[in-house]
Amino acid sequence: MAATAPSAPTAPRITAVDTYDIRFPTSRELDGSDAMNPDPDYSAAYVVLRTDAGDGHEGHGFTFTIGRGNDVQVAAIDALRSQVLGRPADELCADPGTLSRDLTGDSQLRWLGPEKGVMHMAIGAVVNAVWDLAAKRAAKPLWQLLAEAEPEWLVSQVDFRYIADALTRDEALGLLVRGRQGAAERTALLREHGYPAYTTSPGWLGYGDEKLTRLARQAVADGFTQIKLKVGADLADDLRRIRVARAAVGDTIRIAIDANQRWNVDEAIEWTRALAPFDPYWIEEPTSPDDVLGHARIRAAVAPVRVATGEHVHNRIVFKQLLQAGAIDVLQIDAARVGGVNENLAILLLAAKFGIPVCPHAGGVGLCELVQHLSMFDYIALTGTTENRVIEYVDHLHQHFLTPVAVRDGRYTAPVAPGFSAAMRPESIAEFRYPDGTYWAAELEPRTQEPRTEEPRTKQKGAAA
Amino acid sequence: MAATAPSAPTAPRITAVDTYDIRFPTSRELDGSDAMNPDPDYSAAYVVLRTDAGDGHEGHGFTFTIGRGNDVQVAAIDALRSQVLGRPADELCADPGTLSRDLTGDSQLRWLGPEKGVMHMAIGAVVNAVWDLAAKRAAKPLWQLLAEAEPEWLVSQVDFRYIADALTRDEALGLLVRGRQGAAERTALLREHGYPAYTTSPGWLGYGDEKLTRLARQAVADGFTQIKLKVGADLADDLRRIRVARAAVGDTIRIAIDANQRWNVDEAIEWTRALAPFDPYWIEEPTSPDDVLGHARIRAAVAPVRVATGEHVHNRIVFKQLLQAGAIDVLQIDAARVGGVNENLAILLLAAKFGIPVCPHAGGVGLCELVQHLSMFDYIALTGTTENRVIEYVDHLHQHFLTPVAVRDGRYTAPVAPGFSAAMRPESIAEFRYPDGTYWAAELEPRTQEPRTEEPRTKQKGAAA
Questions:
Q1: Domains identified in chain B, total number
Q2: What's the rounded Cα separation, in Å, for the pair A135 and A147?
Q3: Domain membership flag for residue A442
Q4: Which of B21, B72, B319 would best serve as a mutation to test chain A binding (most A beta carbons within 10 A)?
Q5: What CATH number should be reported for the domain holding residue B353?
Q6: How far is Cα B278 from Cα B369, in angstroms, rounded to an integer?
Q7: Mean pLDDT across A43-56
Q8: How far apart are CA A11 and CA B209, in angstroms?
């Protein structure tokens, strides 16, 4: 499985694939609560690639999880170690696609998916770490590396297996060649104005009406033109909350609603129609992310409310079908759910071919940091537009990253630091590594003797600001 | 998450959830080789539930894998342990559906799927182990326990979330009530004649023409009316091999072909059409198991060759769509890919509603042992027929099971031993536990000093008979 292209024996190689189980105790504050996820502890199965190049560069990547099972995700990344160790760093960074194909095509690991779930997300973490390393070595933020890349090379990074019936290599190449026109102007615009964002911070299901109103107004004051509400647990509550939100933000601000897969197809249709008088901009994850045909039925039934999904769509093959079936109005990529940058390139190309806007899922741990690069590439070098495109923004856990996102006036500022913005602060890793980081060691120790306290603790507030 | 129904403090409970990483060195003989899986080491992430009932009964279950990553699968089962330990055994066995829903609905673990990949297969292993325990405690083979169960209770074991648009609870109940008519007669017929099988043993891609001819003729002599060939690596080879196989078995024996997901949609159509003159009965896994719309296109294009898939279809939601889209002629459940017996009940009910025959995937490690119970239930108490229905049979690794399948005259004999036929022999576990079983300890030790031998060893032959 090792790359076979020749490389000098002394060329730098990958010398370590180190993994970390990082967990933040977010469940204490109901940040991130929704109809399906009442008490998440936002976590990351985190991986660091090290080389013997002596240049100080490392590749960082991770899978986002919400707590239990983060150790399984770490074990899955560990299972990839032997296929990454020893690869020449120059070749790996010049062609992450080969590693991507080797890992997704590994005949034995493939059985555990194929291309879905724990094993596929592990591949995504490792592949994203390679892109982080490649961008650091190129001294460019990843969006810039991608936006300046030759179309031929970009196409070589895409696996067309199982999507060639919807998008051929030549069509993809054509989209990228066309996308370059005006790229320099758009790069300048991006650096000056950033990329539009929307915020989910006001709308978590665990928040009361007063907090919802206050945060929704704050969002508008902060320059956001779209907010999002979690819905799906109780229709009467949802009707009240969307009324409260609409009253807080007025008629010109878009309110997206998000059911987090709570409904069956028919429920989704009824519930969305009931909320339609408050003009929701899109209904997100109305049902199972696997249900292409269900989304198509929902979309036909709830128009003009748009249908959005993608954060749990497990690979390019399902996205292909959502597009082929006319099942979605908004495609929501996630930077760490699929097989990494390479598969997301395929998905961005599919969306461009079908003319469907991409509005990435973010939040979690570091997902905003990652996905901004993909949208910025899409704007500069593929679709050339930000019209009806917004990146999700949630204002928590950014303080744990070395180069956190900067959102100003409702827009993501273009990153300037080389890399994929994936690196966590060493002191955060030392504190929140599970179960032996300083936070968890202190937290888990007394719990065996005394009942769990009801009071949120200062430390937790700090963790989930 | 623990069951909340009252239970006497002294009632028996689950006291252990023990896991084992079992690997058989099948890659040495090319048993199981196909276009996507050239060198599988057939493996099982194996789980044993123990109670303090003092009746000696244990619940056994497993996920089948093909080698690397089996440890990840074991870690996933381990992640479920805390939700199973301490549950009252009586309640658990009287209602496995509650555990099934608790595990698939666990908000944090759900993020790792949802309902797909490593985490979902782990749930399937645990849920199947509960059914094994339940059937042993009821002193019935599982097929009989299911076939004698009340329709109302069976329906209570099914999760209709995300499938209610295709199959309501009332429709399912109606199918089961109708299915009971004549069940006693069919039970007698099953006990006397068994259930039809087909064999894949002749058709592995790694076998030469002489071995293919010999094994294909043997299959006919053994009473099989259908064999299967692996295809998809090289069209010229496939044309030669299907010609050889057709010459060996004559015109009346069905030859299924299996591409193991090797092709894109258009390739699948071209390749299948090229093989069509040799009258293949079905083309199995022509493309990605995720591609509902792709299978629909292939089916329309290759008729009268039937389209079959399912062994890698990850849950009932994808099966629902394959049926809704008219994408398949043959539905291939797998006993250990989805969330266990409960989800397979849902899938059998969906297939019955849509009138599509179920021909299970089997082979691997213990998959024949498990899935026979589901087909026999389907025959006796749901569809009432074996017409155009066959269970896959592969003749290897059965000697490792305490109650191995018995296939005579091309038919599975109805199991009589209580349980789900899932229990592996203790001496096989002791030998093939990885990496510390006696086989692997001896195998892995010298490999660090000397190069790997080319000769198959006596021990390996025994393992993969």
A1: 1
A2: 12
A3: no
A4: B72
A5: 3.20.20.120
A6: 32
A7: 97
A8: 46
